[in-house]
Specification:
461 residues; mainly alpha; 75% helix; 0% strand
Amino acid sequence: MESGGSRERWGTKVGFILAAAGSAIGLGNIWKFPYVAGENGGAAFVLIYIVFVIILGLPIMIAELVIGRHTEKDPVGAFKVIAGGTKWVFVGYLGVLSGFFILSFYSVVGGWTLGYIVKSISGTAAGIDSIETAKGVFQEFSMDPLLMILYHFLFMGSCMVIVIRGIKKGIERWSKVLMPLLFFILIVLIIKGLSMEGSFRGLSFFLKPDFSKITADSIIAALGQSFFSLSLGMGAMITYGSYLSKKEKILHSAMYIVLLDTLIAILAGFAIFPAVFAMNMSPKGGPGLIFHIIPAVFGKMEFGYIFSTLFFVLLFIAALTSGMSLLEVVTAYIIDERGWSRRKGVYVTGTIIFLLGVPSALSFGVIRDATYFLGNTFFDFMDKLTSNYMLPIGGFFIAICLGYKYGLENTIHELDPDTRVISLKELWAFFIKFISPFLILFLFIMLIRDDIVSLFSRLFG
């Protein structure tokens, strides 16, 4: 293990890039991106999404990596360094708490992927040949409390086993295996989808822009997807950046991470839309596109159980690479700020996260009618709290603190000194100070506008 004092370091640049890309690449790329693109016009949405990735996602990604390597601390420790003695340290706590909350319900969805792998291998999904059947199978599955808790436990345990081994022997080693495997399975599924009769209608939908289908809500959706798909605002990249040696180039690394993350999302579209159109199904499947439509698609294929198994293995890998990064955020805080050993930190935090996730696991069954959380189930409440509030607030204050409180002049030296395009440094500084925070603020307002209207109607209606 390469060392800088007693702090762990990534063993190789490739290992860091794959691990950081794995953190960003999750269910948001393979589960959420296709259905959001499907609901918002396909190719036109994709182009707008890519623009936002470049002008918003990349600058914030670089900022988080810069803060992490500059301070060599977890998110809380990092903000104690760059804003020591001030209230700005709450941004670090917000990042750790975001990772804690997100993993509690993210692990439940990760557990679903395990359940569907079992269904595919055992053949119990073989009879799914319509959306109605698929919906019934998912409802029956998600309403079983013991199964939900068991698969939630197994997924959380998988994250703990990897993170407990540390950065180089755990996260980096597994990322080098899981990320290439994820690419391989996606390519296999793309080839299969394109071989189906009628698949080119799906390609046209995904590649031929029709901007008449774009609305204001579509633009907001693209902005939100670009932000959340990169796992920004939750301290994951600050944590991963803190293990980065001074010799590594942040600009290059960040661009590779963003490129890989976007590539996976695009490949997921290539894997899903041709198959959906070939089966004469609607791309507007919403959040149920994966668990309702995809099993029905594979159910009609020859040897569909093989491709169904591969697809849900792919989903599990995507969920796992993000899950272990979320657990590392919380673990790093415990190690750095509380002085615990890695093993103790993982056991304690992992167990608490698992217990917090139990109500989310039961939100589709025994407590599905318990909508005491601002009209939401516990699962939906946790999702909304983190995605619509905690993450954009965290991203906004990261940019504001770096641009106005600590000062870019104190951190810009962390960027590649020998970059061939020297102006990239100044371009990043301009975006992080004048563009990114205000785009995030706009996103935040748009995301919560319905909540604000609803709150006012309750108070004064």
